[in-house]
Amino acid sequence: MECDLMETDILESLEDLGYKGPLLEDGALSQAVSAGASSPEFTKLCAWLVSELRVFCKLEENVQATNSPSEAEEFQLEVSGLLGEMNCPYLSLTSGDVTKRLLVQKNCLLLLTYLISELEAARMLCVNAPPKKAQEGGGSEVFQELKGICIALGMSKPPANITMFQFFSGIEKKLKETLAKVPPNHVGKPLLKKPMGPAHWEKIEAINQAIANEYEVRRKLLIKRLDVTVQSFGWSDRAKSQTEKLAKVYQPKRSVLSPKSTISVAHLLAARQDLSKILRTSSGSIREKTACAINKVIKISLIFFTYTYFYL
User: Could you tell me the pTM of the whole model?
Assistant: First the structure.
């Protein structure tokens, strides 16, 4: 009876949100939630709700729809990461075996209810409070960067009728005045000395984007491994009573881990020659600051593992 009421509320809310998918047909939603993560139609509905939610919320995690029941486990891992980022309050969706949570009909209905309520709230907040950029006017990323430069150099707000040439000439003049006050070689010589044209910068941007994409994939994998590892801590009977305490400690730290790279071409321009000096991590000067008692334990463990692997 409770599940029937939840299904009715979900269908009404989906129509209000503008959903036009096949699950609005009679019995389709009930059949999809019964199969849960094994149902591609259920995962498509979840992916649609998340995509709509990402329009209004800055979410790092995302959920992809599946094409077959064999992808159910991967889908549940993605949902787990998303709910962790959103600080979902429902323990049945955030604790226990991550590969079995969304194989229960009630949990699937609860997930849809939660995503729908978050999307409804986000849309209402957007109506009542327009985005800050629209309020500020001219609050683009470039504007914010130039504003940050002026603040860092202690420059006053430029007049409205100033030209771009005059504006950047003023920044250059102020920068030279500031550098004249610091000791020689305080900033260091630039690592990139060769003048670049538009074609060069275009290629450098493409290289940086390719590296950033690779970095994002690797970081997502590490974050996913972290989530699964932390979730495994709560599988024991003793740890189940400490689920809330674990989430309270872990979620704030987890929420600040972003898979996106923050490195841009600007960092290349700002790089100094000292970055070209590569020091081995095993060098004496480096080991003075990184050596600790745990290194001996790790070394013994590696020796033992190597011995057992090759000789036993």
Answer: 0.45
